[in-house]
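Fold it.
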Amino acid sequence: MSALLRPLHILSLAILTLGWNIPAQAQPEIFGNGRWVDLSHDFADDTIYWPTADKFAKSTVFDGETDKGYFYSAYNLAGAEHGGTHVDAPVHFARGKLSVDKLPLEQLIGPGIVIRVADRIGKNRNYLVSIADIERWEKQYGKIPAGSIVLLDTGSARYWPDPVKYMGTAERGEAAVEKLQFPGLAPETAEFLAKKRKIKAVGLDTPSIDYGASRLFKTHRILFQHDIPALENVANLKALPDRGFTLIALPMKIRGGSGGPTRVVAFVPEK
């Protein structure tokens, strides 16, 4: 980013994250012309969680007219860190690494690319995204720039929120883990992206960066040893171009948390 654009970029992040109340007519055209894409599933009773995780729960504190004549609504929320669209912080699988509240904002904001493998999965719901898949993208667009956020489109988002089609089972509990099936990132590909391409984050449209049948979670462990966070259950990747957009992923700031619900959006400039 040029020195000229950097102050505007910082200002834009302040507006987004702090919610500054700036009148529309006074706001600078920070991002220019383009479109915003929401890459997040909403949280509700049908939000998909790991079979052993507490699901999302919303209970009503009050919803209606008060005795003073005005409307008021408020709710209590509960649920596991890892469910719905969320981020895995490195400490999730790497002792002493970054917790979600310590992740630098610049690591979750930056240039994004999408690597699409939906046409390669076929009936193999435990497909592993390979180095060959990465090289296929690079053959068309060139080497992945250092500092990129890499998104993997496995085509799984079209199954949301059907847990059987999306993750292999609707069952809950430890026994259900054995029945999980969905694509993930191969450990050797994670190593390649971390060491050879120097990416700063990775995300995909499945419940885990490791494939469904994984029991050792090698991809998590490799990425997190390099302090590279993972976005999981990302939505709507089909709405993005393969490159040329800015990704913004802002998780709930849970002190010492191993992850948290995350609003993931992208800005796609007009060409």
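The two ends are 18 Å apart (CA to CA).
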